[in-house]
Amino acid sequence: MQSLLVTGGMGFIGSNFIHYWKKHHPDDPIINVDLLTYAGNRDNARLFDGQVGYQFVQSDIGDEALMMKLMQGIDVVVHFAAESHVDRSIHDPGHFVRTNVVGTQILLEAARRGQVKKFIHISTDEVYGSLGVEGAFSEVTPLAPNSPYSASKAGSDLLVRAYYETYGFPAVITRCSNNYGPRQFPEKLIPLLITRALRNEKIPLYGDGLNVRDWLYVDDHCSAIERVIEAGVPGEVYNVGGQNERTNLEVVQSILRLLGKPESFIQYVADRLGHDRRYAIDSSKIRRELGWAPAYSFEKGLQKTLEWYVRETEWCARIADGSYRVDKEADHT
Length: 333
Ligand SMILES: NC(=O)c1ccc[n+]([C@@H]2O[C@H](COP(=O)([O-])OP(=O)(O)OC[C@H]3O[C@@H](n4cnc5c(N)ncnc54)[C@H](O)[C@@H]3O)[C@@H](O)[C@H]2O)c1
Hints:
Elements: E1 4-7, H1 12-24, E2 30-34, E3 54-58, H2 64-70, E4 76-79, H3 86-91, H4 93-113, E5 118-124, H5 148-167, E6 171-176, E7 178-180, H6 189-198, E8 203-206, E9 212-217, H7 218-231, E10 237-240, E11 245-247, H8 248-259, E12 266-269, H9 284-290, H10 298-311, H11 313-320, H12 327-330
Parallel strand pairs: 1-2, 1-4, 2-3, 4-5, 5-6, 6-10, 7-9, 8-12
Antiparallel strand pairs: 9-11
Helix pairs in contact: 1-7, 2-4, 4-5, 6-8
């Protein structure tokens, strides 16, 4: 049995990770630290409220004194909390530096002083920049972030590396490609497409729609993190990808087809500033060294995702009318 502190566990990937971990390791206690920003949704982990071995703490990871206190007796930190939306980073870069860079340093320091045994830092393939039509990012690709979001994530990666090199702190970095699946806030491409198409609304598509992303079903990301917790080597970086490269246009077309909606729903809009053209990730290291492999093809993962959004009408309605935010003032567990 090991005790986990998960940051950002009310967000998309963090909450899916808690669901995954509780299913596979039901006896492990988890503290979920989340500030409940606009992206944090109490509904995402409400199922665990009141369960023995689960505690939600509404807090900023930048609260140094509280982080120090919470680290007592923690074996593993899994750090998801971040400002994560590229478009928002273009409008307010400072906020991204405060949470993603300064917040990560405060968490690292608290974990180091608390003698945590392993710290998993969840990063992104976006720190590597953009690719042409060929090639893929490996763990030794130089960092070349292009947006304030990816620059802030690269900054946090460098701090994690420095904590390993300077203090021998047992930190590991994972860099994954675009995740999709249940409980994703509908500002990101796939849930935006699904929720709009279900309401018969137009679907905005940046530029020519030919930007390429590699798609990873969120449960496959969770199983990769599980392997890193179990066997990842401190100081190492592991890329995690789904080997599912698709243009944004192909993604939109697949979703419209599966929902039985016409392609006339697509509305091309002006491209995002500094929009990276292509990301592709070489995840052969985690496959070879930790024996991880994704279980979901894009088609299978997309089908499961669609079924979830179609079924969870209340979750979608509470996001759409903003009532998911009501908990934010009420909760100070
Ligand atoms: N979504 C993806 O496709 C993707 C891909 C690669 C990497 N990542 C990384 O994975 C992590 C999780 O991404 P996500 O998509 O789940 O993000 P998300 O935006 O859905 O969730 C982020 C969570 O962090 C919380 N949070 C934000 N600032 C906080 C703070 N100062 N203190 C405490 N909590 C705070 C929010 O309330 C929210 O619950 C991020 O670090 C992101 O960079 C995501």
